[in-house]
Design brief:
With 507 residues, the protein is mainly alpha-helical. Helix content is 61%, strand content 0%. One of its GO terms (biological process) is cell differentiation.
Length: 507
């Protein structure tokens, strides 16, 4: 009898042995009056044996897979009459396939990571992930192997996610730790489907996941800055196979718009069954000023004919110019406000350049003028800073006498210094992009901005205001910043202000 058959026979006998043990236990329990210290319950023993049985099944399956792989790698015997060259070729192909399988296997997790999962220690696991946040790339690759060591991976991940929406005021340090723990939870949530298929999640665990989803939905917002919460909610539905509970709910589309800047957003849409809703989602992205994200979705889902990318990118540029001007105006045209506005426009223009290059749109929209515009804006920032430094140094010069002449001369020099700064700013009003006129997707004031960008004319329709830049960030959507939440991050979004994670975390 082979080892595998022996294991199988032993496992088949488990039920009979458990029955006998229960009878003996019942007989023993009838004497409990004489056994004051008899405190063990049958359910405890039952759970213990169930865990052992589940562990044995898992080890048996792993052993069976290894046996099959070993057989597959054995070279086939040379058939009489066949050439040695063909036999060698067959052997090489088999070896290549075996090497590919070996490469595809998950990375062996470090012992502490695996042990915490084996013990189902949710709190210890969270602490381990947070403590090792700088090694996020390795953690992501080790996570599948570590979770497989847990007896109940789906249940363990749910325990890790408890307190994801914990309320109450937090100090800056407490909030930073809170966000790190959140990202660690999302990492495991993203990893779970590679360990347990959604349809294989136990009924009781799935029931708990549904309850958690209801609570999360009530606490999750759809505006700017809520992308981590929105992503966690959508991933919870996918990982635990409860998407059907929210089929037809428009909240899914709103959450997708909230996380659209993340590179894996289109894949999440597929897993949520929202492919047929893509035209509506793209419209929402456009109307909310997320043209770069819209272009990404358009190319991913083959909607280029319905939503031509170039008009969207041109609208993005015009909206960026408007935001830049508004930023300077709101700051009373101070040098810092003008530089802030220029930085926002630079980020937007660079995002458009990368988008053109990624989707091979150079034949429809040249990047040359855009690169010149970036250089022009960078130069204007430098000139303004130099002028401000010159004024400051003149102000700090000591007086030559007590007549006050030094102060007067400074006052006389100040206007000319600022005048040179404002003269540099007038370059903003020139035509920086030399782009052709277009009317599709126009949603901002072309009458005001058309001459600056060479796009549109005073007679064309107004463009609706786009909210290109979150208040806490100057980067532009997918391209101006890291495409993740920071460290935990699920490959691949913009990091929070308190995040200390590297951008590799969430891909």
């Amino acid at each position: 009898m082979s080892v595998a058959e022996s294991i199988s026979a032993a496992m088949d006998a488990i039920a009979t042995k458990k029955e006998r043990l229960q009878k003996v236990y019942s007989e023993l329990e009838s004497h409990t009056s004489a056994l004051v210290n008899f405190k063990i319950q049958w359910k405890e023993l039952q759970d213990h044996f169930d865990n052992l049985e589940e562990l044995m099944k898992k080890r048996s399956e792993e052993l069976g897979i290894k046996v099959k792989e070993t057989k597959a790698t054995k070279p086939k015997a040379v058939v009489p009459g066949s050439s040695p060259a063909s036999a060698k070729k067959t052997t090489e192909k088999t070896a290549e396939k075996a090497a590919e399988k070996k490469t595809d296997k998950e990375v062996k997790p470090r012992q502490e990571f695996r042990t915490l999962c084996e013990k189902m220690d949710a709190e210890g696991l969270l602490k381990f992930l947070v403590d090792n946040k700088k090694d996020v790339a390795a953690l992501r690759s080790e996570a599948p192997g570590a979770l497989k060591a847990a007896l109940k991976p789906a249940e363990l991940v749910l325990k890790v996610l408890e307190g994801f929406h914990a309320e109450g005021k937090k100090s800056e340090k407490e909030f930073s730790l809170f966000m790190q723990r959140r990202r660690a939870g999302v990492l495991l949530l993203e990893t779970l489907p590679a360990v347990v298929k959604a349809e294989d999640v136990p009924f009781e665990v799935k029931k708990l996941a549904k309850k958690m989803a209801v609570e999360w939905k009530a606490n999750t917002k759809t505006g700017e800055g809520s992308y981590l919460e929105a992503h966690a909610f959508l991933q919870l539905l996918i990982s635990y196979g409860i998407v059907s509970e929210y089929r037809g709910d428009h909240i899914l589309e709103d959450f997708v718009v909230a996380i659209a800047r993340r590179k894996q957003a289109p894949e999440l849409c597929r897993n949520l069954g929202l492919a047929d809703k893509m035209p509506d989602i793209v419209e929402k992205l456009i109307s909310s000023g997320k043209q770069i994200e819209a272009v990404n979705f358009v190319h991913t889902f083959g909607l280029v004919e319905k939503f031509p990318p170039v008009p969207l990118l041109k609208t993005h540029l015009k909206d960026a110019k408007k935001v830049s001007q508004e930023t300077a105006k709101n700051g009373k045209n101070s040098i810092s406000a003008q530089n802030e506005g220029a930085s926002k426009e630079i980020a937007a223009v660079k995002a458009v350049i990368k988008c053109i290059q990624e989707y091979k749109l150079e034949s429809q929209m040249s990047t040359e003028n855009l690169e010149k515009r970036v250089a022009q804006l960078e130069k204007s920032k430098t000139d303004r800073k130099r002028s401000a430094d010159a004024v400051q140094s003149q102000t700090k010069r000591p007086r030559l006498n007590n007549s006050g002449g030094g102060a007067a001369s400074t006052a006389e020099r100040t206007p000319s210094a600022y005048a040179s700064s404002f003269a540099a700013d007038r370059s903003f009003l020139q035509n920086p992009y030399n782009l052709p006129i277009q009317g599709a997707y126009d949603r901002s004031s072309q009458g005001i901005l058309g001459s600056a960008y060479g796009i549109g004319s005073r007679g064309e329709s107004l463009l609706s205001r786009s909210h290109l830049f979150p208040s806490d960030n100057l980067h532009s959507s997918l391209y101006g910043a890291p495409s993740s939440y920071g460290s935990f991050s699920l490959g691949t979004g913009l990091p929070s202000a308190n995040s200390s994670y590297p951008s590799a975390y969430l891909r």
